[in-house]
Amino acid sequence: xxxxxxxxxxxxxxxxxxxxxxxxxxxxxxxxxxxxxxxxxxxxxxxxxxxxxxxxxxxxxxxxxxxxxxxxxxxxxxxxxxxxxxxxxxxxxxxxxxxxxxxxxxxxxxxxxxxxxxxxxxxxxxxxxxxxxxxxxxxxxxxxxxxxxxxxxxxxxxxxxxxxxxxxxxxxxxxxxxxxxxxxxxxxxxxxxxxxxxxxxxxxxxxxxxxxxxxxxxxxxxxxxxxxxxxxxxxxxxxxxxxxxxxxxxxxxxxxxxxxxxxxxxxxxxxxxxxxxxxxxxxxxxxxxxxxxxxxxxxxxxxxxxxxxxxxxxxxxxxxxxxxxxxxxxxxxxxxxxxxxxxxxxxxxxxxxxxxxxxxxxxxxxxxxxxxxxxxxxxxxxxxxxxxxxxxxxxxxxxxxxxxxxxxxxxxxxxxxxxxxxxxxxxxxxxxxxxxxxxxxxxxxxxxxxxxxxxxxxxxxxxxxxxxxxxxxxxxxxxxxxxxxxxxxxxxxxxxxxxxxxxxxxxxxxxxxxxxxxxxxxxxxxxxxxxxxxxxxxxxxxxxxxxxxxxxxxxxxxxxxxxxxxxxxxxxxxxxxxxxxxxxxxxxxxxxxxxxxxxxxxxxxxxxxxxxxxxxxxxxxxxxxxxxxxxxxxxxxxxxxxxxxxxxxxxxxxxxxxxxxxxxxxxxxxxxxxxxxxxxxxxxxxxxxxx
Length: 691
Description:
single chain, alpha+beta, nine-stranded mixed beta sheet, six-stranded mixed beta sheet, 16 helices, about 30% helix
């Protein structure tokens, strides 16, 4: 007799390791493991992770109720620039929209002399235009020219271009012309992969909508093949099990739908980590949280207020703006595998280039030939001479050789070279944390830092010093928080419609009608995901601005009928949000009009979250957890106790210096700091009084 289905699995594929978490829904018990990622075929690492965690639980695939996955396939394709040749169809007269782009220059206009505009995603010779025109209300000014459309489709077919994006002027207001173009492409070039802007981003601003649509088209073939491959091979282990993929907006979507919306997976892994950390920190009693996810290649940071990670539609991946809703993540190339190198001027730099999983840091069995952040940690004794409980031995001697060579070129000792690498890495992370707080009008000192990922907690004490943070929370199994986050995530779809109107002239009936249409779309999508109407939840928001501003501020809109009083509540919420972000507002100045720009609906299908289990207390103090000692360099070499984290219990206090170790992560507790274990097994790092 087959076992009853009761296990949900979350899998986060990173650049170095694939993290796996399984929750037994009957008992609430969590099982975690890691397996090396397989960059050549990411699906292989994924499936190995499924088999490994089921083996640890003594179960077969018949016990699995659902699998959720965070993937970097789309992100890596963009960051590495591995895009096929793409065709672009737009309105006659707008063929240069990609070339004109925006006038903004990264790092300010002082950089304008040196900055070179990145290459357009589609070269000029692969842009085709079609006559036909709508105005901003969606009314037809000039009819769609089918002959132009047929000529464009045949041009791409004959040129061998099989990936095409379509973005017509004002298609957000009415998509009739884009749908007509799609019909022509299906007839004339049936083998092409096509994205149309009205299905990707129904929002004004032609440049961002064009690029977002083209990025969606560009990643469709690879994401589609990857997800379909996993779905097919997953059926060999757990036939027919529901398979979800994490989206950038903090929700998941079934694999069958993701192949039609691949751009929504852009920040899949970082989004899961932020949500998992938010839930863990919220259960521990902290509602203002900075999440710091340190991996092998990069560190991702975000800000959480009242349990909700900040969302943005102003994100980008590499050189490409993507105006899809995404959790506001700042990424820096400061992971465990980040390479230390010398600039032409002879100064020490760390990252963004990484040794990744292959070849890996110098201390790895088949490691590379350049020193990394991990090599600095292992030479200073801050991590043990092995990873994953001994599965991966590390060579301290190999790391030492690389760092001594770098030190000779810098004129520094081995210890000072290693400390310099870690100091630069810590400041890179600190600057990213400032970007999500200080740059958004928030005081970084009001937040609890939550560190996770394989390398996320190694610099926690130094970050507290640099930023003046009151405490750091390190969850149990911190290397698996992103995978755990996948099990906390609801199914979520976002819909947007541009409706520009001054607040004083707002047509409440039209706004109500647009919200109703967006909610109908959301409900139909959730019906297809298997959620009954009684379980579905709709979340309304609107983007507002002062007339004359170029960017908007998003504020919530209450459920129910939108009368004049409810609309005024939205305007007042906008004034308050503007004041928080920018330090001023015009709430009391009737001369400054407010303008509504975009209406948004998120359709949410809630899932059952894992229980956060409280651990029983134990007698005997921290001696039961001590596994030995080794020499560790903080300000100097000091004989430092090492502790097994799994042997610690609620109420235990570990004063620094100490090194707390577990299967997938290590926490160095510096002198002058202490780690306290809370009821859920989290470590709370604080400065000892007087330090």
